[in-house]
UniProtKB/TrEMBL annotation:
It is found in: Mitochondrion. GO terms for molecular function: ATP binding; glutaminyl-tRNA synthase (glutamine-hydrolyzing) activity. Residues 1-458 form the Amidase domain. This is Glutamyl-tRNA(Gln) amidotransferase subunit A, mitochondrial. Its EC number is 6.3.5.7. Keywords: ATP-binding, Ligase, Mitochondrion, Nucleotide-binding, Protein biosynthesis. It comes from Salarias fasciatus. Belongs to the amidase family. GatA subfamily. The lineage of its organism: Eukaryota, Metazoa, Chordata, Craniata, Vertebrata. Pfam families: Amidase.
Length: 465
């Protein structure tokens, strides 16, 4: 009830697309009865959670923040949602996002932008003299609603999706823990795809230990997602005796990227120094293909988008236009009316990259470079480095009015510079909030680890809290 109440009080954040009040109260009552009898379903029994609106939820509208799916009510739950419900967790709502998870700001969805809760907090207001009504800052994205939900205490955990950084980016800007697990560790069944070869369900929580517990529940083989693998080590809790002195921390020199603010760079070195003082071995490493990563990501992303979005033709799925002069005209206008221009642009680019005459030059080339990017990471980890410490975003959250200026739109792609190579390589990565900027906004740093070493990664992350 407190969470539902808070959702009402924080409506101005626009973090939720749908609030499942009745369902939540019913589930909470059942949980309460179990807890009173002393027979909880699991460690999450009765705990409120929120889910990004691109995960299917049975009998609860799932829109992807798009006119295309405005009336879509799935008949089933995504595996990750079902696993949380099976533990007794209580669904409070579906969170706001960029349309079809394309974006880094949560400013491009049908339901309007998500406001970062820190816009209304004392540090930002006092240090900048900002007025929250005109100077509010973005939540980051595309899972901005999930990060804002956890940061504003309307839910204890939230599911996001992470294809190029969409869970970690808003995690950093909203000051919450955001985990992108290893590709294949957590089922994508029921997550409406953006880029199938990179999508991973993301976990947003207040603490690293909570993220570990949720990962323990969500991970594991799912027959409905053929890319999942059996769980390497079942766990719900992190080891108590973790010793920083035993680890090697790599600082990738290529991550001193253009656009990185002096403040975030200074904070990054402070945390690296802290690791060193605590006894870890901190060393500079090189990931030479990083510079090609954003371009490759966009070729591969658009190519998969062009293919994925073909299903939304107004017949089998989605919005159907009234134009019915021919089947082709109906397809075309359904798609034109249903998708925003970010989605349409990616479909057009993807189809261009996949044309017979372009396929080798763009798509195949990008796949080859993707392998080189993954090999860079493999080499560094094989040489004994345990984790990489990097920034998550270029700086703290931008004002909405600045972020949405036409000439800043390209910045949106730049925002993924530190995050999307972990998706290209399928590696686990976690963002931990570690400081407040001079403007009174959160700064989060990222740790990237070897595939399927999510538990060890979270062990290191916990030292940074
Ligand atoms: N910003 C990236 C994009 O727009 C990442 C999106 C994501 O991770 N879902 O493609």
């Amino acid at each position: 009830k407190k969470c539902l109440d808070r959702i009402k009080k924080t409506r101005h954040l626009n973090a939720y697309i749908t609030v499942t009040e009745e369902l939540a109260l019913r589930q909470a009552q059942q949980a309460e009865a179990r807890l009173l009898k002393g027979v909880p379903k699991g460690p999450l029994d009765g705990i409120p959670f929120a889910v990004k609106d691109n995960f299917c939820t049975e009998n609860v509208r799932t829109t992807c923040a798009s006119r295309m799916l405005i009336d879509y009510t799935p008949p089933y739950n995504a595996t990750v949602v079902q696993k949380l419900l099976d533990q007794g967790a209580v669904l409070v709502g579906k969170t706001n996002m960029d349309e079809f998870a394309m974006g880094s700001g949560s400013v491009d969805g049908l339901f309007g932008p998500v406001r970062n809760p820190w816009s209304y907090a004392a540090p930002y207001r006092e240090r900048t003299g900002a007025s929250p009504d005109s100077d509010w800052v973005i939540s980051g994205g595309s899972s901005g609603g999930s990060a804002a939900a956890v940061a504003s205490l309307t839910s204890y955990l939230a599911l996001g999706s992470d294809t190029g950084g969409s869970t970690r980016n808003p995690g950093a800007l909203c000051g919450v823990v955001a985990l992108k697990p290893t590709y294949g560790l957590v089922s994508r069944h029921g997550l409406i795809p953006l880029v199938n070869s990179m999508d991973v369900p993301g976990i947003v929580t207040r603490t690293v230990s909570d993220a570990a517990m949720v990962l323990g529940i969500l991970q594991g083989r799912d027959l409905r997602d053929s890319t999942t693998v059996p769980t390497p080590s079942p766990f719900t809790e992190l080891p108590e005796d973790f010793d920083v002195r035993n680890i090697r921390v790599g600082i990738p020199k290529e991550y001193h990227a253009p656009g990185l603010t002096a403040e975030t760079r200074a904070h990054w070195s402070r945390v690296a120094d802290w690791f060193e003082r605590a006894g870890a071995r901190v060393e500079q490493v090189s990931l030479p293909h990083t510079q090609h990563s954003i371009v490759c990501y966009h070729v591969l992303c658009c190519a998969e988008v062009a293919s994925n979005m073909a299903r939304f033709d107004g017949l089998e799925y989605g919005h159907r236009s009234r134009t019915d002069s021919s089947t082709d005209a109906m397809y075309a206008s359904s798609r034109h009316e249903g998708f925003n221009d970010v989605v349409r642009r990616r479909i057009l680019c993807g189809n261009y990259f996949l044309l017979k005459k372009n396929y080798q030059h763009y798509f195949v080339k990008a796949q080859k470079v993707r392998r080189l990017i993954a090999d860079d990471f493999r080499r560094v980890f094989a040489a004994g480095v345990d984790v990489l410490l990097t920034p998550t975003t270029l700086g703290d959250a931008a004002r909405y009015h600045d972020f949405t200026q036409e000439d800043n739109r390209a910045r949106s792609a730049q925002e993924d510079v530190f995050t999307q190579s972990a998706n290209m390589a399928g590696l686990p990565a976690v963002c931990v909030p570690t400081a407040l900027s001079r403007r009174g906004l959160p700064i989060g740093l990222q740790l990237i680890g070897p595939a399927f070493r999510d538990r060890e990664l979270l062990g290191v992350a916990r030292c940074m809290e």
